[in-house]
Amino acid sequence: MTTSTTRLTVLLFLIMFVIGTDTFLISPLIPELQAQFHVPTERAGWMMGAYTLGAALFALIAGPLSDGLNRKYVLFSGLTFFAFSTALCGLSSGFWTMCLFRFLAGVSAAFAAPQVWAAIPALFPVAKVPRMMGIAYAGLAVSQALGVPIGSGLAALRWSIPFWAIGSIALLLAVSVFFYVPDMMPRQAPGSRTSLLGRYVPLLTSAKARGGFLGYFFIHLGSNAAFAFLGKWLSDRFSLSLGQTGYVMIGLGVGNLLGSLVSGYAVKKLGPIRTMVSMLIFLATAYALLPYVPSAGAATGVYLILFAALGILFPLVVGILTGLNASIRGTISSLATSTMNAATTTGAWLAGILYAQFGGYGSVGLFSAGCFLASLTTFIVSGMMHAEKREKQEAATS
Questions:
Q1: For residue 315, what are the contacts with CB-CB under 8 A and spacing of at least 6?
Q2: Is the pTM of this model over 0.85?
Q3: 20 to 30 Å CA-CA from 370: which of 93, 171, 337, 348?
């Protein structure tokens, strides 16, 4: 690996690490921020929701917009605004200013994060794309396993310090993007212009694309439905405290990290099709059996393996989606982000109904299993598996 390739790899990893840390950080800080801003519990969730709302709303705009511009400068601008809006969170004087700055941070992340996924196929050879996708996704996994605990430790000194730290690091990364990332010009004929909505037309008219995004939705729907009520299940079933549940969460991050790091290796050894099919069948089986494990330790072990499998699967699927149309990779990456957010929201809502009214976590596990089988079926019926085969052939000739 050349020096420039190593530099780009580390840079993309760190960008996802910083954005992931900022995304997850607010959750453990909510009790402190509630006390600081005198906010009741029913309103406190908006400090998390404001970020997600900004990211979800503007992702659909940021993607098509970035496909008509030099992707390097979209990433640079997104990271710069992300740095300042996150740092401003640490200067918030009240609840609504915090919500405003979290919303702006989400908007900035909607422009920055999808550029990482879209940049990888443009910056690296086809054969290296699965591995690079895994490394970038590992940045998110490390942020969950290490970034959030570190941020929580800094918050013990003062609640604003983590925001200032993340903002400062993000600004340094933006400067690095300006100097070290090459230009990534749009793939379109000179003088041709396509409307923002027009960039979605190739995806809406492609059966493979529709099936790919629907399958991606089912993957996130199943995993997030089970994750949403993991803490409550651990408390109800094994009487774990909040602190003990936190250690389980760190284990999930470690599993996700391990999976994302070996994702490229798994694809190389098994091939994309076998990797995808085996991971989806394994996840469906494991989620169905998960609610019946005998101890908290066993549950932690199973979840670590589950998140390792998800760490292998997610970069693979994102790589396939971004390869559907090279000229609109930003649109595809942003649509994938919006799909993930929609699945997360829907999964948490459905899991609440299932847990409360249909037999607890057992029904949630069966629902998740069904989602993974639905994803597999959708990929097969839509022809996405054939797209996978072509990707493998291209990788072999690169």
A1: 130, 133, 134, 136, 137, 260, 263, 264
A2: no
A3: 337
